[in-house]
Design a protein that fits this description.
Strand content: under 5%
Mean pLDDT: 75
Helix content: over 70%
Order of helices and strands: HHHHHHHH
Distance between the termini: 93 Å
Shape: elongated
CATH architecture of the largest domain: Up-down Bundle
Number of strands: 0
Radius of gyration: 36 Å
Largest sheet: none
Number of domains: 2
Structural class: mainly alpha
Low-confidence stretches: 163-176, 225-234
């Protein structure tokens, strides 16, 4: 079992208990299930991002042509910076999970204290929107760093090949051959080292997408509660027993008044006999 599966929110006792209480009381658990699943997706993307960093390091070590190239120093610095950023996002997601667990814990306490009716306000126990926006901002920064690194890789690669082209053309001129006019657009170094950065950017976009979905799920959960409350408020109030008796008396009186005078007199006479 991997680390993500072992520490999954679905394995947390408070989370499992909330699902059980929702089921026992016939409440819809799909909103909570969606939130839990989105957190899992974020964790999976972080794992992929960490794998991308490992690939970057391996690619850089294996590229012999980069050993004495200025791109090596730049890439080493970029990998170090990106590792720190991904670690920060991972910590933010851990805090997000902790807040969700705390929300489930508080929801269960409220159910024990005030009854199952509090489950209708389940969304109010998850105060995580600010954290989701913070995670989104972090992924945007990492994506920007990936774009900058890719641009530098492309620049260094072109310069590298142009330098090589100049040397080759000097040799060709000396040997009486026509010079080559155009360098290769993208070398092996650019493709190999750039690939993990592109994959890293995709991971960050995936996390950002899950954040957006989770915000939508929370809004939907809150809106559902507000809609149900409005529907209850719009429903006519059920009359009390005394109100129903009073209404019945008025109904009888009106029926009595609708009868012809003679019939009303007879009814009164019958009552006095």
């Amino acid at each position: 079992m991997d680390e993500n599966a072992k520490n999954s929110l679905m394995n947390n006792n408070y989370v499992k208990e909330v699902f059980a209480v929702l089921k026992e009381n016939g409440k819809d658990a799909s909103g909570l299930a969606a939130i839990i699943n989105q957190v899992k997706e974020m964790e999976d993307f972080v794992t992929k991002a960490e794998s991308c960093i490992s690939d970057m390091k391996t690619q850089l070590d294996e590229m012999r042509e980069a050993q004495n190239h200025p791109i090596r120093t730049m890439l080493q610095s970029a990998i170090k910076s990106m590792s720190a950023m991904v670690a920060s996002v991972k910590n933010q997601i851990s805090e997000l999970k902790a807040n969700i667990v705390e929300g489930c814990k508080n929801a269960l306490s409220a159910v024990k204290e005030k009854g199952a009716a509090t489950l209708s306000k389940l969304a109010s126990f998850f105060r995580v929107k600010d954290m989701l926006f913070s995670i989104k901002n972090s992924t945007v920064k990492i994506s920007d760093n990936c774009d900058k690194a890719l641009a530098r890789i492309d620049t260094f690669s072109k310069e590298y090949h142009e330098t090589g082209l100049h040397l080759k053309n000097m040799f060709r001129v000396v040997t009486g051959n026509q010079p080559i006019n155009k360098a290769k657009e993208s070398g092996k170094l650019a493709k190999a080292v750039g690939a993990p950065y592109r994959a890293q950017k995709n991971c960050m976009e995936g996390i950002r997408s899950q954040c957006n979905k989770m915000i939508v799920a929370l809004n939907k959960l809150e809106h559902s509660v507000e809609t149900k409350a409005a529907e209850r408020a719009a429903q006519p109030k059920k009359p009390t027993l005394m109100e129903r008796l009073e209404a019945k008396k008025k109904e009888i009186k009106l029926l009595e008044l609708e009868k012809p005078p003679v019939e009303r007199s007879l009814n009164k006479a019958e009552l006095t006999v």
